[in-house]
Amino acid sequence: MEQHDKVYDLIGVGVGPFNLSLAALLDEIDEVEPLFFEQNGTFEWHPGMLIEGTKMQVPFIADLVTMADPTNRYSFLNYISKNERMYQFYYLQRLDIPRREYNDYCQWVARQVESCRFGKRVTNVRHFKDNEEIFEVEVTDVASGQVSVFKAKNLVMGTGSVPVMPRSFREAPSEDVFHTADFLPNQDRCRKASAITVVGSGQSAAETFRELLKEQRDCGYRLDWITRSPGFESMEESKLSLEHFSPDYVNYFYQLPQEQKDEIFANQGLYYKGISNHTINDIYNLLYEYSVGREELNVGLQVLSEVKDIKPKANGKYDLECYHYQKKESFTHESELVIAATGYKPYVPDFIHHLEDLLEWDEEGRYKVTADYRLVQTKETSNEIYVHSGISHTHGVGSTNLGLSIHRNKVIINHLVGRDLYPMNEKNIFQSFTV
Ligand SMILES: Cc1cc2nc3c(=O)[nH]c(=O)nc-3n(C[C@H](O)[C@H](O)[C@H](O)COP(=O)(O)OP(=O)(O)OC[C@H]3O[C@@H](n4cnc5c(N)ncnc54)[C@H](O)[C@@H]3O)c2cc1C
């Protein structure tokens, strides 16, 4: 085991957009020396869903740095300029850049920010008191298995989320029943299938269904889309609704009692779980086009129906045991492939639970978080654990929204340096959430 004696100001766990933004901003700030570890060999942003034609759900202004510092060299516009695409971008006249381009931009930043280390998984963290209080961070090189230990005054968790599959879906072979997160590596398999069913009705479900629908007539498969929701509902995207993804709403939400927060958040699904209007329009337009001349569609869209179980059949296909909960009727649906668009959940690594005694947890077993994104500790220490992931219960509906990542990183940096390096505006939106 390799032991490093140097004490870093901050060690970051995970390099997704949230921690990459923090790393990029800190790259310009000499007084904080950070190090960030990412288990993947390179920066990858949801690679299985980088479908051609999909676009960001936030304007490019919500890049990794601009909302904190528009002059920062890691801005999206500088990426465009350095790649000599300024005129093409200018004529494009779009704020919502392709998702593949956002990933390429982040990779461009990740290649330059020296504090980011790839192919390194953080496998344990210990809070330790010797001459001074520090964290010891155990890091495993993914390729060689070699373990090193690094020291840090503070940590920042940016471990994001992981795909969720219902238990009954997990029993089938993963080449036949897989999550939308694995869609692109399985797209060729889809092209050869006789029948495909997408289960769920969020944005990932709609993008996958749209992509399959585009090729459905050429490939000749039967295509179905099943959801337990009452409809293929659109996301609430009006400009005033988008103000829920503002620092002002985060501040308002944070100070509510926990019980009230849980109730409010449970009813805000359409702000982030529904389908973008443009995706629904694309799907509808394709269906309409295909139906010209009363052609048999060989496509099904089924709402109000939950897939309860998936059973293998002798013919190599699967029976999906479904239940229509308004008619209270069960039915069976046959498919060769099943794509689960069943969402994601926050990923909190086990080692955080090893710090159980240091941290405060609520009755639901969730960690407590301060308004400025630090885990609440049981005792006074000089070390903080800042957190980006798993904070919807404390900071609400915007917790995973990329448009708020810069605000959060400004708050974290201000706390780290002990002064308002980034001034905070009191009012950023037109409406008031509080009185
Ligand atoms: C398909 C998809 C599209 C989305 N599109 C948008 C959008 O357009 N606009 C928007 O606002 N939001 C969007 N989101 C939501 C959100 O912005 C993303 O989920 C975003 O990636 C969150 O960033 P993150 O940095 O928190 O986590 P992630 O991107 O999930 O990154 C976390 C990283 O941590 C690494 N990691 C985890 N554990 C360890 C460990 N122990 N050691 C080292 N590394 C570790 C992981 O490998 C991963 O790379 C989208 C989500 C999905 C799933």
UniProtKB/TrEMBL annotation:
GO MF term list: L-lysine 6-monooxygenase (NADPH) activity
Signal sequence residues: none
InterPro entries linked: FAD/NAD-bd_sf (IPR036188), Lys/Orn_oxygenase (IPR025700)
Record field: catalytic activity: L-lysine + NADPH + O2 = N(6)-hydroxy-L-lysine + NADP(+) + H2O
Keyword Magnesium: no
Cofactor (UniProt): FAD
Annotated Gene3D superfamilies: FAD/NAD(P)-binding domain
Pathway: Siderophore biosynthesis
Superkingdom: Bacteria
Pfam families per record: Lys_Orn_oxgnase (PF13434)
Keyword annotations from UniProtKB, A to Z: FAD, Flavoprotein, NADP, Oxidoreductase
Entry EC no(s): 1.14.13.59
Family to which the UniProt record says this protein belongs: Belongs to the lysine N(6)-hydroxylase/L-ornithine N(5)-oxygenase family.
This protein's name: L-lysine N6-monooxygenase MbtG
Species for this entry: Halobacillus dabanensis
UniProt lineage: Bacteria, Bacillati, Bacillota, Bacilli, Bacillales
